# Entry
Amino acid sequence: MTTGIDAEALREKYRAERDKRLRPDGNEQYIEPVGKFAHYLEDPYVAPTPREPLSDEVTVAFIGGGFAGLVTGARLKQAGIDSVRIIEKGGDFGGTWYWNRYPGAQCDTAAFVYLPLLEETGHMPSEKYTHAPEILDHCRRIANHFDLYDDACLSTEVTGLDWDDDAKRWIIRTNRSDEMRARYVAMGTGPLHRPKLPGIAGIECYEGHSFHTSRWDYEYTGGDPAGAPLDRLGDKRVGIIGTGATAVQCIPHLARSCGELFVFQRTPSSIDVRNNHPIDPDWFETLEPGWQAKWLMNFTTLQTGGFADEDLVMDGWTDIGKRIRDKVMSSGKEFTRENFIEAYEDSDDEKMTEIRARVDALVHDRETAEALKPWYRQLCKRPCFHDEYLDAYNEPGTHLIDTDGKGVERIDATGVWANGEHYELDCLIYASGFEVGTEYARRAGFDAVGRGGEKLSEHWADGMQSLHGIHVHGFPNLFVVGPTQGANLISNIPHNLTEAGQTIATIIAHTIDVGASEVEVTETAEQAWVERLEAGAVARMTNSPDCTPGYYNNEGQPTGRRGRLNSMGYPEGPVAYFQYIDAWRNSGDFEGLEFR
# Structure
């Protein structure tokens, strides 16, 4: 037990704070941006270029132009497959980094492991945690480097995906009247592109200016994504609902610019030290070929409690992993799951005590400081790292409106009601994030229809069924790209995508080489993989009674088997999965797949 910390009292505090925030409606507390808010789904950055509908054929179509599409497209080109078309609803590549242009946006994981294909494109990140404009530029760099613009369909949204069993082709329909064909289709639609709104009573009644952070309105605020001051807010009373990762990054900019800023908080984020710094070009030149793969595995190993001779990344993610590992080692106990959990709880108590002490050290007003302290385990919600967020509350015009876990009561034509008090506002900003817990078909905007007319949503009605999170029985020549039922490495999503992209490119190249028209996972192999995951599944730390509700834990609601299947990963952990999938795809056997 950690010296000086009353662990039992801490547990009681965590549970009390959690209970305040539990809601029976779970994910249903959020609403879709429809009706008055439908424009939040529109692209404010690029107007679609007129073109004739397409009825052609490509070898591989990839749905989604974020990191998933970029890394898979790159690996396909490297494998000698030139007929690759990426279909993206945004006006350019980038995915979430195309939509997120709010002030202060930057990656929360070090750029050397977060940005894919750095070696392949010869890019050196300018700083340890790169800002959004540089990340978007890197997405474009990848697309240019691998000629992915050549056959891309941008500003195009897929509306239908159907398997033609006679032709052995996928038929892809879009909102631009396309009816194209593809021999293979991969989907990287992800959860971080469709904004959600809080289902607060009266939200549709507000008559002031409003926008979602994923559609930041610089015309109203002034400034730009590069960090120019928000110079049109000096006489404005601005409210922002949400204090998650997005709000943590944009609130310092708002605090410096607004006449008055009102931050409506239901649950505070944990704010650890970021310590961002520029990258030294001379040092970067000393990195040897293969450095990024080495850094990726080093980060994943340490972040998940493994052993490495050095910490190459040195950030908040690896810090907690090293603490846990070192506690087990220093105790002289075996490295069992039970001892790991004990060390995890002890280490987390230390870390969260430090994070709460940091609030006291930086925030001048005592009442505000108390309200900003997170009372839950660090990994219950997306951990945040920032060196300006807490100081923002020292700005005289910035007001934290803490709702003690209840959230905003209602919204009316002129402002927001919270704690029985009305706050009149000129502008209301929704920092309420993206749809993460909703069904894939709702987020994607279409439902894949496989052999015999079976919909993917039907195949997954009782939870995701797959091999490696990539292949689905009954859906030949279709590949899914994401972390679930694979490594499930949440701290660095692009690592999952890079490995999946390499796997898919290897399989498609093999299918073509052997002259097969179809590749599909067998029903037996799919069932065996799911059973393997379930047999080795353990309760996630984020689902403990010490966790406040959030999208990491299904808003605190029981998940059941369906929820577990939709969120589980390889039982032995991300490092073991990456080693497993590398050996599997390089063996040449492709166990579990049929080539016909």
